[in-house]
Amino acid sequence: MRIARTPAEVREALASEERPLGLVPTMGALHAGHLALVTRAREECRTVAASIFVNPLQFGPAEDFARYPRAFESDVAALRDAGVALVYAPDVATMYPAGFATAVDPGPVGALYEGALRPGHFRGVATVCVKLFATVAPDRAYFGAKDAQQVAVLRRVVADLDLGLELVVVPTVREADGLALSSRNVYLDPPQRADAPALHRALAAIVDAVRGGETDRERAVACGRAALADADEAYLDVVDPLTFTPLDPLAASGLAIGSVRFGTTRLIDNEPIGEAL
Length: 277
Ligand code: PAF
Known about the structure:
alpha/beta, 6-stranded parallel sheet, 10 helices, 36% helix, globular, binds pantoate
């Protein structure tokens, strides 16, 4: 497995590799959810590359960029064991050299929910992903279903900018109690960790209500809210998974989405009403 630090090194390393080529973009601190992306990419692609880059552009000034978990050595070992051919791990000055001024604005889908709570977040995600796609030139790129709004943003970007690659969405990996794996779970103290599955229970309650015949969005969301008990909700809703606009009337295509704060850590999750994304 090679480690490349610049776009030129990536292009040189991948020039002779077999296609199709899959890319797994990550910010490191890898867990079983990331490795599920690599496993799927290995099943579908002759060559798999991964990136490790904690992207400052997608963090707000008061967010956790500085303390975001970093575990480069163990990440590299895990990616090597998982059969990745190349890891692209640029530093910030390589990704955003002095004078860097171009950004990708993902439009309305990037302005709702996470976009409203984290202004500029999806602009940062879209910009870094377009740069990664331009450098690696993958046939397919792999993303986790947990970050459903990120997937919606990137689908829009890939289609609108004619990027000519396939986005593959891999199901969320969960702990036994339903908590979605996330690099931010390490921030939870034991009582917060014990409370955190309430988010998934709330989403499951919404899905159960709709599958049980509830057609009113507000009432379905209220079922979720009841399951949240006194947890500190940031949002809970049912949306169209492509546009992230609230889904009224409810339909099997809907996605129950939610975000809850446990202490200073805000977690996100989602559950499809019908088939997975
Ligand atoms: O999902 C993530 O880890 C990040 O948002 C991504 C896609 C690697 C872009 O920095």
